[in-house]
Write a structure and sequence with these properties.
The protein is of the alpha/beta class. The protein has 14 helices and 16 strands. The structure holds NADPH dihydro-nicotinamide-adenine-dinucleotide phosphate and the ligand O=C1O[C@H](COP(=O)(O)O)[C@@H](O)[C@H](O)[C@H]1O. Pfam families: G6PD_C (PF02781), G6PD_N (PF00479).
């Protein structure tokens, strides 16, 4: 969030070094930072796991991941030899207290090698149930007393509900200071998400109309074409509301709805976001059916390929009541947003991989054009496309060339199309951790405020088994009830045209 500078010497321990997230995201991100010359002059990366790798095998595994998943497919090999010298593997059982001495030894050896005390970063990329135990054991190591340079990064999910998130916060805060704790929400690292701040606060253009007087409603869609991709065990404990709405989607809502920050200081931005979360209208359990819809995909066809239903996925209960789709209507009770609905939806196995935010402005108060001039007056619309491509599109009415006054909507589009050069979210976030900048990370109160918002929905859904699951087919836009949710207000979901 700040203008980046080369971080100081850093030693990064990745718990879950042999796991999927490190393979697909973290190692490619660190390698891209290295290629782009953002890594510190002195650094070490230590993957941790119980699997028996030697350093060479481990490096080879990571290289395979990089070749498959890095944004740079071609350039990646050229710098590998140099980069890989910084990577080692530490076999240990994170549940065994005695094994933590190995970490203390690595820190000591690296300090001697670097000739200085580096940032020591513990990245917890492990199953959520292991996190409290690892945090406790790291705390007991006493490496954390150096508060300015020791940091702990917590992957999502942060807790399973409000209670467990609060307990995890209490535990972490008993051992680390808030400024040492980096709670990941990878959406905040996306270029297109950060661009929302520049769009809103670096231009005077939008602010005067960015409120209930001019905005009719806001929509956020985060749709995926994939199913649960072998993560059925995790997803069975989660579902779409926990997996996407509690974190990523509420954070996008905060970016759209927050007041202008007076600086880019981490706490200033986070204060402004917490204000939004606290203003989101509490949904009573009696209202849940009116404002929230859940769905689960059945078996079917996806772009010509037969795909299993959610209940047939690996590690999923064949009678599962877990939702793979969620749609919710929120309101924000404050002066800026009173009575403006925010419709959000997310789901797996949907028709497109696409995340977008639509700001629908109100129609002109009065117009002199003949009614036949335009089919629709729904043109005043700003669409912020987060992915697959970053795009900002302003749609407005224009006269069609010809002798009659006929109008049609036209689009003014900003699309940087910078593909390979656009840093991935994890690159930005890892660089921020090394630099000690927590702006794009979740503060304790932010996480808990977000849990408070979704709890009544979760509790209601858990107490009332869904009727008729599965209720949507792969390659669709989710269950019919989601259409009804928005149609009741006279609107419809806006879908992005597929990217060619
Ligand atoms: N994968 C993804 O796409 C995403 C993952 N996440 C989050 O990231 C975290 C990791 O997920 P993912 O990588 O998919 O999980 P995996 O199951 O692939 O990896 C789990 C890792 O934990 C290690 N581990 C488990 N038990 C121990 C132990 N006792 N001691 C030491 N290491 C242990 C495993 O190593 P070993 O078996 O060698 O011991 C392995 O490296 C989770 O919190 C997940 O929610 C978040 C977003 C996306
Ligand atoms: O956090 C998660 O996000 C991914 C979607 O991330 P994206 O960057 O590809 O939009 C989702 O697939 C996963 O279930 C969830 O845990």
């Amino acid at each position: 969030m700040q203008n980046h500078k080369i971080p100081p010497a850093s030693l990064i321990f990745i718990f879950g070094g042999s796991g999927d997230l490190n393979y697909r995201k973290l190692s490619p991100a660190l390698y891209n930072l290295f290629i782009d010359e953002w890594m510190p002059e002195k650094f070490g990366i230590v993957g941790i796991g119980r699997s028996p790798y030697n350093d060479e095998d481990y490096r080879q595994r990571l290289l395979n991941g990089i070749r498959q998943f890095s944004r740079r497919k071609e350039d990646s090999y050229g710098h590998w030899d140099e980069f890989s010298k910084h990577v080692t593997y530490l076999q240990m059982d994170a549940e065994k207290e005695g094994d933590y001495q190995k970490i203390a030894e690595v820190v000591k050896a690296k300090e001697a090698e670097m000739g200085e005390h580096p940032n020591v970063i513990f990245y917890l990329s492990v199953a959520p149930q292991l996190m409290p135990d690892i945090a406790k054991k790291l705390g007991a190591l006493q490496l954390c007393s150096e508060t300015s340079t020791t940091r702990i990064v917590i992957e999502k999910p942060f807790g399973h509900d409000l209670k467990s998130a609060h307990e995890l916060n209490q535990l972490l805060m008993g051992m680390f200071k808030e400024e040492q704790i980096y709670r990941i929400d990878h959406y905040l690292g996306k270029e297109s998400v950060q661009n929302i701040l520049s769009l809103r606060f670096a231009n005077a253009l939008f602010e005067p109309i960015w409120n209930r007087h001019y905005i009719d409603y806001v929509q956020i869609t985060a749709s995926e074409t994939v199913g649960v991709e072998g993560r059925g065990g995790y997803y069975e404990q989660s579902g779409a509301l926990r997996d996407m709405v509690q974190n990523h989607i509420l954070q996008l809502m905060c970016m759209i709805a927050m007041e202008a920050p007076v600086s880019f200081d981490a706490n200033e931005i986070r204060n402004k976001k917490v204000d939004v979360l606290k203003a989101i209208r509490k949904i009573s359990k009696e209202e849940v059916n009116q404002v929230a819809v859940r769905g689960q995909y059945g078996e079917g066809w996806m772009k010509g390929e037969k795909v299993p239903g959610y209940k047939q996925e690996k590690s999923v209960n064949p009678n599962s009541a877990v939702e793979t789709f969620a749609a919710v209507k929120f309101y924000i009770d404050n002066w800026r947003w009173q009575d403006v609905p925010f419709y959000v939806r997310t789901g797996k196995r949907m028709n497109q991989k696409s995340t977008s935010i639509t700001i629908q402005f109100k129609t002109a108060p009065s117009y002199a054009f003949p009614p036949e001039a335009a089919e629709t007056w729904r043109a005043n619309r700003l669409t912020i496309s987060i992915q697959p491509e970053m795009e900002v599109k302003l749609r407005f009415q224009s006269k069609r060339a010809g002798q009659s006054m006929t109008l049609s909507p036209v689009d003014m589009i900003f699309n940087p199309k910078d593909g390979e050069n656009e840093p991935e979210a994890y690159e930005t976030l890892l660089l921020d951790v090394m630099e000690g900048n927590a702006t794009l990370f979740m503060r304790a109160d932010q996480v808990e405020a977000a849990w408070k918002i979704v709890m009544p929905i979760l509790e209601t859904w858990e107490s009332r088994p869904p009727a008729g699951f599965p209720n949507y087919t792969p390659d669709s836009w989710g269950p019919e009830d989601a259409e009804a949710l928005i149609a009741r207000d006279g609107h419809n979901w806006i879908t992005m045209p597929p990217v060619k």
